[in-house]
From TrEMBL:
Guanylate cyclase domain segment(s): 265-397
PROSITE patterns linked to this entry: GUANYLATE_CYCLASE_2 (PS50125), HAMP (PS50885), PROKAR_LIPOPROTEIN (PS51257)
A Gene Ontology molecular function term of the record: adenylate cyclase activity
Assigned keywords, A-Z: Membrane, Transmembrane, Transmembrane helix
GO cellular component: membrane
Transmembrane regions listed in the UniProt entry: 122-142, 154-174
InterPro entries the record matches: A/G_cyclase, Adenylyl/Guanylyl_Cyclase_3/4, HAMP_dom, Nucleotide_cyclase
Taxonomy, superkingdom: Bacteria
Listed name of the protein: Adenylate cyclase, class 3
GO biological process: cyclic nucleotide biosynthetic process; intracellular signal transduction
Keyword Hydrolase: no
């Protein structure tokens, strides 16, 4: 059985009350017993002294009748079971009730002032003295059984009171433990739900006092976490996961417009014939087809450690090598471009068989040093890359024929130092925005799939 907070609290309160009751009860009973013992002894000593004082004259005048009357009248007192007067030689001059204790105990008896005999009888002793002369002694025997019975009654009453008190406190403690334990259990359940990622959990119930404030604080925290998770999910839809992870992990919430020079590759993929396709069609149909092709672009890009930078009309811009560094970004960019071409070719074959409209693509890619970071205004920023490679990739995409993958000779040379690639030169052309002509190449394919290097660090899916 698992002990909950309420059970532990009830047990603790019960134990505390039990210990306190035992200590207090023992103290009170001890004091009560002491008072009863003192009163009993004082009564016995007083009776013995009275008998001794009354026996002075009859003892020294040897008035046996008077001594007998004194003894018999004293034996009629409550709790007095015996009384006797003896002379200094130990002879009994008058007695009533039970027999006297053994005379061999007299010395100890005289020193103690009282002597407890068998059958719970206590004997009290007082000497009979006249002007410094001892004529004998007065003995009074009192029954202590009434005192013991009273003490036993006190113990029983104390036990009953303590038992009732403990039971009452236990019931109160259990009820209090339940009322305090439920909010604690609800809070534990809530923290476990939050820990498991279930941010929609809310603590239900009408708790009072501090627990009500605690419940409100917990529910507000869970609501904030749920909203944060929703924002993160929406944020990851607008930017790639690596970009979202990079900036959400920063402690400084103030994002700055800044960039960093990195070595990266840029791929532009353009849909050929989009303008003619969109004429006379509903926007919903156009959006459906665009989303279909863009999904193929994005899935392939993620497969090769790339990120979708943006969609520009019917064109997609893909980047490799940032924000996470990738020493093989050229290789991954080229693999992505060729894979997109193959996927779109397969997709168009299936759509043609189904009688659906098809769009061809053209691809341009380049690589080198770019500035990557947050660009824009304070109100609206975007993670992107700018630089000559991005401009060149865009221009090459515009110059490529449908179905072609076009790059520049510098990109091709840097790539083929480690990865052989089939391509053929087209021509040296003047590209808008560049002062010197650019030597371009059209990529055919990899020589043989068996000759490709291992891609142990590539992603296997989007």
């Amino acid at each position: 059985m698992k002990w909950h907070f309420g059970h532990k609290l009830a047990l603790l309160m019960t134990l505390l009350v039990l210990v306190a009751s035992c200590i207090l009860g023992y103290t009170l009973v001890y004091r009560q017993f002491s008072m009863m013992e003192s009163q009993f002894n004082a009564t016995g000593a007083t009776l013995a002294s009275q008998l001794s004082a009354a026996s002075v004259e009859p003892m020294f005048t040897e008035d046996q009748l008077a001594l007998g009357n004194l003894v018999f009248s004293l034996s009629d007192q409550p709790s007095v079971v015996s009384a006797a007067v003896i002379n200094k030689d130990g002879d009994i001059l008058a007695d009533a009730g039970r027999s006297l204790p053994t005379l061999s105990d007299v010395n100890a008896f005289k020193n103690a002032g009282s002597l407890t005999a068998d059958n719970d009888i206590v004997w009290f002793y007082a000497p009979v003295v006249f002007r410094g002369v001892s004529g004998g002694a007065a003995w009074v025997g009192m029954d202590k059984s009434h005192l013991l019975a009273s003490q036993q009654g006190v113990i029983q009453s104390g036990i009953i009171v303590v038992t009732l008190l403990v039971l009452s406190i236990t019931l109160v403690a259990v009820r209090l433990g339940q009322s305090l334990g439920k909010p604690v259990r609800d809070l534990i359940q809530g923290t476990r739900a939050i820990e498991s990622g279930h941010y929609g959990f809310r603590i239900r119930g009408t708790h009072r006092g501090e627990f009500s404030d605690l419940t409100k604080a917990f529910n507000n925290m869970a609501k904030g976490l749920e909203e944060k998770q929703r924002v993160e999910r929406l944020f990851s839809r607008f930017v790639s996961d690596p970009v979202a992870a990079r900036y959400m992990a920063q402690d400084n919430v103030e994002l700055k417009q800044e960039g960093k020079r990195v070595d990266a590759s840029v791929v532009f993929v353009d849909l050929v014939g989009y303008t003619a396709f969109s004429e006379g069609r509903h926007p919903e149909e156009i959006a459906e087809v665009l989303n279909l092709y863009f999904t193929e672009f994005a899935n392939t890009c993620h497969q090769f450690n790339g990120n979708v930078d943006k969609y520009i009309g019917d064109c997609a811009m893909l980047i490799f090598g940032c924000p996470q560094p990738d020493p093989e970004h050229r290789y991954h960019a080229m693999k992505c471009a060729l894979q997109i071409r193959e996927r779109i070719h397969t997709l168009n074959e299936l759509r043609a068989k189904a009688g659906d409209p098809c769009l061809d693509i053209r691809i341009g890619l380049s690589g080198g040093t770019v500035l990557a970071g947050l660009l824009g205004s304070h109100e609206r920023m975007q993670y992107t890359v700018i630089g000559e490679p991005a401009n060149l990739a865009s221009r090459l995409c515009d110059l490529a024929a449908p179905g072609q993958v076009m790059t520049d000779k510098a990109f091709y040379a840097a790539l083929t130092r480690r990865h052989p690639l089939q391509a053929h030169e087209t021509q040296s052309i003047q590209v808008k925005g560049f002062q010197t002509p650019i030597e371009t190449l059209t990529i055919d394919n990899w020589p043989e799939e068996s000759s490709l290097p291992s891609l142990g660090h590539e992603k296997t899916g989007s």
